[in-house]
């Protein structure tokens, strides 16, 4: 192939990737809107959409006839039959979801298991995915698997260096999953993938500078987005907010001498104070919302004060436009959002807090599965016809 042909093909592939990424991350678009947003000409967009339709990656629908003005172009929609599998192993369960292009969760299951090891996760995921292949996802194209691990994951190769609550150290989960299902596997930190999901599909879609904190059964992790880019650090380990020193202004609020943030702001402490056993987030939210006084109310107030102080420090250091709180951290805020947000702002420099927005994760319990699946889609998005 001559140099010109190679260059033309390279440009076409780049443009295909731009169009597919646009409808995946931003939703259905008419050809006219795609033309306007990409700056490509109409005939080029028509050719690119035709290729994506032919590859089964997008479908076209006729526009709403009630809104017809002139001759509107067809609406390009990501195919619901192109999916990636998101996996989140936690200390009490393995959650698995099938996520379509466009970020919609098609199938979801939570398998209770106490502190699963790598072999447990591989066996559970293989069993669930094979069942879906023969049933709910029959005929679908499965692009790959993304695994959201509550621990330190090396960016270079996806090795889990340390997941303390799962008791995984220097663990390879990508290799065994690939062998079991013949699918490409990517592995990342759960909170970083949650930040990715909220930035692309959730509460932080309109923001370029975001601090994300995720609170789960395994503790507190986080993600940092600056100028629209997820920041991983040298090895990929950035965002370990739970391991920072807790900001405890009143000694009476301390519960763990020398403890870090996740020792003080802790889901298990809330569960115990609420008198629950093993609740999901919806049950925990309901119990805490009903706690007007007593041990639960005391614990809620204590954790909110420490969390607000931590976020105030984050505002001073990073000057984000938005803070997103996932899991039980979002619940703590939602119990009294106005008071919590004001508590964060009073602990930050006034200039740094100007325009700051704070929100619970918009994607709820699906955030980690969507983020993991989006990472698994990355190779397809980079080269749709590769």
TrEMBL record:
It comes from the Bacteria. It holds the Pfam family MarR_2. Coiled coil: none annotated. InterPro entries: ATPase_NBD, HTH_MarR-typ, ROK, WH-like_DNA-bd_sf, WH_DNA-bd_sf. Residues 19-67 form the HTH marR-type domain. One of its GO terms (molecular function) is DNA-binding transcription factor activity. Belongs to the ROK (NagC/XylR) family. This is N-acetylglucosamine repressor. It comes from Microbacterium azadirachtae. The lineage of its organism: Bacteria, Bacillati, Actinomycetota, Actinomycetes, Micrococcales.
